[in-house]
From TrEMBL:
It comes from the Bacteria. This is CPA1 family monovalent cation:H+ antiporter. The chain crosses the membrane at residues 6-27, 34-53, 65-86, 98-121, 127-147, 168-188, 200-221, 284-304, 316-336, 378-399. Belongs to the monovalent cation:proton antiporter 1 (CPA1) transporter (TC 2.A.36) family. It is a multi-pass membrane protein. It comes from Guptibacillus hwajinpoensis. Residues 18-399 form the Cation/H+ exchanger transmembrane domain. Its main location: membrane.
Amino acid sequence: MEHLDMHHIFELGLILTMIAAGITAIAKKLKQPYPIALVIIGTLIGLLNIPVLEPLKMFITEGDIFNFVILTIFLPALLGEAALKLPFSHLNENKKPIIALAFGGTFLSFIVIGFSTHFLLGLSIPVAFVFAALMSATDPVSVLSIFKSMGVNHKLSTVIEGESLFNDGLAVVLFKISAFSLLTYIDMGMGGLTSGSFEFIKVVIGGLLVGGGLGYGISILTKYFDDYPLEIIFSILLFYGSYIIAESIHVSGVIAVVVGALTFGNFGSRVGMSPTTRLNINNFWDVAALLANSIVFLMVGLEITRINFSDQWGTIGLALLIVLIGRTIAVYGSTLPIKGLSWSWRHVLNWGGLKGSLSIALALSLPGDFAGRDTVLILTFSIVLFSLVVQGLTIKPLISYFGLRAKHSGSKEYEDIVANLHRHEAGIAEIRKLKTQLFVPEPVYSEMLTSYQSEIDKSHIELDRLLEENPALKTSQLITLKKHSLYAQYDKITKLEQEEIISGEVAGKYKEILNNGLADLEETDIVKDSKRTD
């Protein structure tokens, strides 16, 4: 590629952004998933000869440029934004399926796809397992944009997002070990297995420590400032700093960003951010993530057209079948012991495990002298295209078929009332705090308080009426309340045991009672879910 000056690079970047923003705007207006639209249009632009766009295509599809833009510029922002807004309480409530899929599922997928491609496609061990690592990373953006438009159960969205955040980190670690160290570990025999396991643990734990340490440090730093532009800069430094520091000391940058952002979004927002700061930080990263995703998916479409698929259709078809079977075994195998996860959810989790830009960027990062690089690129690009277009377009009908968008009568009205109650109560709390800080005159304070309290009283009357009209909704809320009560009781028993106020025998007795109560509620939820599905 001929040398391009910075001015020309900026012009090309601006053109790319304009095209991506235009396609995203149209897709959102038509209520269609914008990532899929961007990949399709990007592929068409790549295939068609449009003279005015040729310099842009040549620039973007340069392997080093694509790899740098995705992995260094956009990946920390996308991971950070997703983790920042994911409440730890949501992760904790769904920890069993998330851990099962992110850890057990990723390893199952890696092993099944690795050995299958080695024996069925004749790929060497390093090439087979590099490809397996790439196919074990999932991209939730397309699926979550569909979920949001269809009003799918929030827990299901949390499971898919939680799985993706953590499995991306593991998949990157597995990719690097497979690409650069696997043959060495194999040659070492049992000692190599130990060394490989130690290296994996070191990279993962190192990422956790870097991300957790920086996240905690910057969270504490926000306590000393109430200046949201500055705190937005802190968040940028956290996401990119944790990624770059972790990568420079050869631990997982992806895991560092996720843990750092989770710490900052949960602990930091609680100890050091005002409501104004939280709102502005979230708004900033909403814009950054939309821009990044729009450009990334358009680039994926453009990049796919660089690959020559001719005479490879048989291999591609078999590889696709292996990947789909590997994902199926990973999802159903890892979640089999988990109670409370309906089969309809498992089916959607299976088909919704889309591959995306991370897989392509990692494939392009393989060194030019890596034996089998071209094969990995062809297979990866083909399956990412199939995944985003075919699976992405069919997930919506699948959700409708299983009835996962169905809700109890009155639930939307209930959500509106609850939203109003919470916003007015939050407003009252802030007014009371500001009264002493700003010396607000009593007449002004009382007028605002009376106005908000009136809205709260109205909402309570509407809520009482709605619950009387919809017994199923009342039952659902009662189950949720009982669950949280049992969780709190379990935590209290655990603390009493830790502080040696009660014996382990007595603690065990009450924990068993509480576990049985939770199991009964989970069974009730499964029955309700299956009835909605039927």
